[in-house]
Specification:
globular; 3 helices; alpha+beta; 106 residues; 33% strand; four-stranded antiparallel β-sheet; Alpha-Beta Plaits
């Protein structure tokens, strides 16, 4: 079993950024409860406030794909689709993760 990460790059219609972020937060609250969803992040390009990445980690490809084919996904993401100009999705296998050690108190 290999953890998978999806990266969905989206460009949002001008003036829709705040609404998009609110819609994403609402959808993410429901998605996080689904079997297999480990983590979700919404990140915005520091130089282009209309460009976002939605990054999500899943236990395995099977559960990610099941969500991707579900009516549940279609319902949750309907409004987000209306707010975007473009989108491109990629799925990756997570091979290695290296975490920084917390800094020790001085």
């Amino acid at each position: 079993m290999t953890t998978v990460r999806t990266v969905l790059a989206m460009r949002i219609k001008e003036g829709c950024e705040e609404q998009f972020e609110a819609e994403w937060r609402s959808a993410a609250e429901e998605v996080r409860a689904l079997d297999g969803c480990l983590k979700q992040d919404l990140v915005r390009d520091a130089d282009d406030p209309r460009s976002y990445l939605i990054i999500s980690d899943w236990v395995d490809r099977e559960r990610l794909d099941a969500f991707g084919r579900s009516e549940h996904r279609d319902r949750l993401l309907h409004m987000i689709r209306e707010l975007r100009e473009s989108a491109q999705r990629h799925t990756y296998q997570v091979l290695h993760s290296v975490r920084s050690e917390p800094e020790e108190p001085r």
